[in-house]
Amino acid sequence: MLGTLFLSVGAAVGMEFWARWAHRALLHAPLRSMHESHHRPRDGAFELNDALAIVNAVPAISLLAFGFLNGGLIPALCFGAGLGITLYGMAYMFVHDGLVHRRFPVGPIANVPYLRRVAAAHQIHHMDMFDGVPFGLFLGPKELEKVGGSEKLEANMRIKFCDSSDIKR
């Protein structure tokens, strides 16, 4: 049980590093044509880039199913890893798609100071400054700090983030 919990937390944290690497090395390189839809104004509810979520969903669902359907230590650890990947994906969706890109209302998370900072950092990524940094989401403010983007981040914090009245449909 404790191993499952630790692996859930570890997988969720590890996903931020995977996401940052994949965003820089894959989405802004060989998969750029697919990811490009995310950097343009969206027509309709979905964009081609949304299909990339399946890349993380497949292993998460597989690990969860294996862990749920089997007994023992290894299946329990697999379940923990799948749960961590899933929790990261849910947090990413609410902050990235909801708070940053206003695809749906996010309620009170729009008022959490650190998440507003994360959202402001991600918007700087879309401005093509600092060679595209930040590529991660939740550690985006730290990435900007490392490349001298703290001043721009503070200025960007003044923008208004999502509430239910300004959803882009």
TrEMBL record:
> Which InterPro entries would you find in this protein's record?
BETA-OHASE-like (IPR045019), Fatty_acid_hydroxylase (IPR006694)
Membrane-spanning segments: 74-95
Domain (Fatty acid hydroxylase) spans 11-138
How the protein sits in the membrane?
Multi-pass membrane protein
UniProt keyword Phosphoprotein, yes or no: no
Keyword Membrane annotated: yes
GO molecular function: any one? beta-carotene 3-hydroxylase activity
Q: What is its main location?
A: plastid
- Where does the record place it? Plastid, Chloroplast membrane
Give the record's keywords alphabetically: Carotenoid biosynthesis, Membrane, Oxidoreductase, Transmembrane, Transmembrane helix
List, in alphabetical order, the GO biological process terms annotated in this UniProt record: carotene metabolic process; xanthophyll biosynthetic process
- What EC class is this? oxidoreductase
Q: Provide the E.C. number(s) assigned to this enzyme.
A: 1.14.15.24
Cellular compartments per GO CC: chloroplast membrane
Q: Which family does it belong to?
A: Belongs to the sterol desaturase family.
Name used for this protein in its record: beta-carotene 3-hydroxylase
